[in-house]
Write a structure and sequence with these properties.
Elements: H1 6-26, H2 34-44, H3 50-71, H4 74-78, H5 84-117, H6 134-138, H7 142-168, H8 172-203, H9 222-247, H10 250-258
Helix pairs in contact: 2-5, 3-5, 3-7, 3-8, 5-7, 7-8, 7-9
Length: about 260
């Protein structure tokens, strides 16, 4: 039998490794673009659970003062000096400040993504199917602006749900939990019933996930993003209508203080 020369094999393998390393050294390494980096951080890193955490954080931060205001009877003293409508406007606007705070947090992540990436050249990202939809890149910056608008609308909805819950729940922690459960139930309703069943039944469109309130931190095609905008806008408007119906009578709020 012919003896195999292992030394030649080792030399050849070493040459292959050295050539590969040389090619890597000569090749210009380019980071992912800012948009890809941004959604990679939001959706695949430790911030993946952001879509579950942010709603309850907004509820906790926005409703605490108003809940105390009602349940401790502070509002009754305030109404001796201020008009009811003026009092509501002032306190609700204070709660709505959380929209700017949490949008600022998401914007900070975007700025960090730009610092990491250093560029907006998404040409390479269009050459393969990645985390971000190609439509999202092609319609920049409008798709990114729409992304933040949808988030802002959803944040207003979370706050409205918590303000409504505050009137009917004397315990603050119960108020927070009930608000969060209402949001989860609303998500199931619109995703399963409207998106998963009605749209499939009447429109023959399998777009259930597009109706998910848990999918706000991912990208969609232009058509899907418009559907999500319409859904979020509708739900937010309905939450404002419900808030008005719950608080339009001063007597009901005063009675809630006395319970």
């Amino acid at each position: 039998c012919q003896q195999f020369d292992y030394s030649e094999m080792v030399i050849e393998e070493r040459e292959l490794v050295e050539n590969a390393c040389q090619e890597l050294e000569n090749k210009e390494v380019k980071m992912d673009d800012t948009i890809t980096t941004f959604f990679y951080i939001l959706y695949t890193k430790k911030l993946y659970y952001l879509h579950l955490i942010i709603p309850i954080l907004i509820i906790i931060c926005s409703v605490k003062k108003w809940h105390s205001y009602i349940k401790n009877g502070v509002i009754k003293n305030t109404l001796t000096r201020e008009k009811y409508s003026k009092c509501l406007k002032k306190e609700f606007l204070d709660s709505y400040k959380q929209v700017a705070v949490f949008l600022g947090f998401i914007l900070l992540i975007f700025l960090i993504s730009f610092v990491i990436s250093g560029h907006f050249d998404y040409t390479e990202a269009l050459s393969f199917d990645g985390l971000v939809e190609h439509d999202f890149y092609k319609t920049m910056p409008y798709s990114l602006i729409m992304f933040f608008i949808i988030l802002g609308l959803s944040y207003f909805m979370y706050i409205n749900i918590s303000l409504i819950s505050a009137k009917y729940n004397k315990n603050y922690y119960v108020c927070v939990i009930v608000s969060y459960l209402i949001w989860l139930a609303l998500n199931i309703l619109v995703e399963v019933l409207i998106g998963g069943y009605l749209c499939r039944l009447f429109l023959k469109l399998p777009i259930g996930q597009t109706f998910s309130l848990l999918a706000l931190y991912v990208t969609w095609t232009t058509k899907e993003q418009l559907i999500q905008f319409g859904l979020t806008l509708t739900l937010t408007i309905l939450s404002f209508v419900a808030l008005y119906l719950v608080y339009h009578k001063k007597e009901g709020v005063v009675m809630a203080c006395e319970k």
